[in-house]
Amino acid sequence: MPSNDFDFAAYTAEITAMTLSGLARAVGAPAIGETMARLAEQAETVLVTNMTAETTELTACGPGCSACCRVNVTVLIPEAIAIARYLTADLPAAEVAPLHRQVEETARAVRWLDDDERIRADIPCPFLDRRGWCTIHQVRPLTCRAITSTDSQRCSEALAAQAAGDYAPLLANLFQKFLVEQTFRGIAAGLAQRGLDDTGRELTRSVGRFLASPELATDFLAGQRIAFPD
Ligand code: SF4
Q1: 24 C-alpha to center of ligand 1: Å?
Q2: Band of the pLDDT at 113, cuts 50, 70, 90?
């Protein structure tokens, strides 16, 4: 099927249904992580099967290109829970506190910055390693997956222009971008239909909260509003 004919409304409804059925069985952070992994896998499968020959090679984003990992990233709460779970699943308890501190430091530094201000301040995502690779690539936020530049050079130029208060056009693989954005919306709709918090929140602040208190995942599933204190 060519991507031009793709039925985004039906796809979004499918993601909402998958979210509802996945979370209906979930009782804690591991089950939330599994549900989010299934949803990301579904997005990847649909993406691969609906790419045309023209669009397959378009996206230039790849491992080691971290040019855009200096902007604010919005996540849904289940994404934050899944990331915190992924980060700590095999981590000795003594290493969780330093990781939490590092994430919180970034959260405080970016707290009141918009994208332009953060790019100018050059504050990278704390999940980048020294090589510029995303250490949570497997569970990275949908917002990150929706960045689909077709030219890494132009991407860097656009960010440099933004830091200087200027503008440079950025070309993107729009099919992939829309598909991932609809995945985000489909999941948010599922959360809302189940009476759960569907608010988008800043990545580091949210992940930091669940690194500090993983048990809050159960409260979230029970429909409680999780507080994110300053
Ligand atoms: S989560 Fe990964 S892809 Fe997203 S901004 Fe951070 S390092 Fe970059």
Answers
A1: 29
A2: very high
* Cα pseudo-dihedral 8, 9, 14, 18, rounded to 10: 100
Residue 216 beta carbon below 6 angstroms from any ligand 1 atom: no
**Percentage of the residues of the chain whose pLDDT score is greater than 90:** 66
Q: What average pLDDT does the structure give for the chain? A: 91
- Cα-based angle 39, 44, 47 (whole degrees, multiple of 5): 125
Candidate from 102-111, 121-130, 131-140, 163-172 with smallest mean pLDDT: 163-172
Residue-level pLDDT at 37: 96
Nearest to 196 by CA among 22, 54, 34, 71: 22
Distances in Å between the Cα of 175 and the Cα atoms of 20, 52, 134, 180 are 25, 10, 23, 9
CA 3 to chain CA centroid, Å, is 23
Q: Is the CB of 127 under 6 A from ligand 1?
A: yes
3-state secondary structure of 114: coil
Using DSSP bridges, classify how beta strands 200-202 and 74-76 pair: parallel, antiparallel or unpaired: antiparallel
Residue nearest (by alpha carbon) to ligand 1 atom 8: 69
* Closest ligand 1 atom to 143 CA: 4
Name which residue sits closest to atom 5 of ligand 1, judged by CA. Answer: 69
Q: How far is the CA of 195 from the centre of ligand 1 (A)?
A: 29
**What span, in angstroms and rounded, lies between the C-alpha atoms of 168 and 61?**
18
- Residue 5 CA to ligand 1 center (angstroms) comes to 31
Residue 1 pLDDT exceeds 50: no
